[in-house]
């Protein structure tokens, strides 16, 4: 099963229906934010969660063992209210739906982006995300 198929399956279980273009754009937008200079990339994401006291959770996602779950409230703590609002606004979802979806998706996404428990450097991450973006529907890829 491809990463996109896994993302769709997980997202559909969270929202209780088919993954819409808005939902697909959320995944695309979030992954794209990992390559922006402002966010600090995947390392910045990890550091943000660590700085907010959620290091044990995010470390489990990077490691090779089981990934710990995270709540929607912890996602907001780790990412910050402003970043959640920006993501929600860009894709047309409520902040509650955005937080809930990211709570389900982040453990799996970070796990997949850190093979063998190693955080990829910026160029490796960009290569991976370029491949993923090519698999998204055209409407979502333009987000």
Domains (count)? 1
Helix/strand class: mainly alpha
Strand content: under 5%
Report the CATH topology name. Arc Repressor Mutant, subunit A
Q: What is the H/E order?
A: HHHHHHHHH
Largest sheet: none
Number of helices: 9
Unreliable segments of 5+ consecutive residues: 137-143
Q: Which class in CATH terms? A: Mainly Alpha
Mean pLDDT level: 80
Q: What is the general shape?
A: globular
Q: Based on DSSP secondary structure assignment, what is the total number of beta strands?
A: 0
Gap between N and C termini: 24 Å
Compute the CA-based radius of gyration: 14 Å
Percent range of helical residues: 55-70%
**CATH homologous superfamily title:** YidB-like
**CATH 2nd-level architecture:** Orthogonal Bundle
List key phrases describing it.
0% strand, 9 helices, Arc Repressor Mutant, subunit A, mainly alpha, globular, 143 residues, disordered C terminus
Report on the structure:
By secondary structure, this protein is mostly helical. It has a single domain (3-14, 21-136), classed as YidB-like (Arc Repressor Mutant, subunit A). Helices cover 69% and strands 0% of the residues. The two termini are 24 Å apart.
């Amino acid at each position: 099963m491809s990463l996109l198929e896994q993302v769709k399956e997980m997202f559909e279980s969270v929202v209780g229906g088919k993954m819409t273009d808005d939902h697909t754009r959320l995944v695309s937008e979030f992954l794209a934010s990992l390559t922006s200079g402002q966010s600090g990339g995947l390392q910045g994401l990890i550091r943000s969660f660590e700085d907010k006291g959620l290091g044990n959770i995010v470390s489990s996602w990077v490691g090779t063992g089981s990934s710990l779950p995270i709540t929607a409230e912890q996602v907001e703590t780790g990412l910050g209210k402003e970043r959640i609002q920006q993501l929600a606004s860009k894709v047309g979802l409520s902040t509650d739906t955005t937080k809930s979806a990211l709570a389900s998706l982040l453990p799996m996404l970070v796990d997949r982006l850190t093979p063998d428990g190693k955080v990829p450097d910026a160029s490796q991450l960009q290569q991976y995300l370029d491949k993923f973006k090519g698999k998204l529907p055209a409407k979502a890829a333009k987000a």
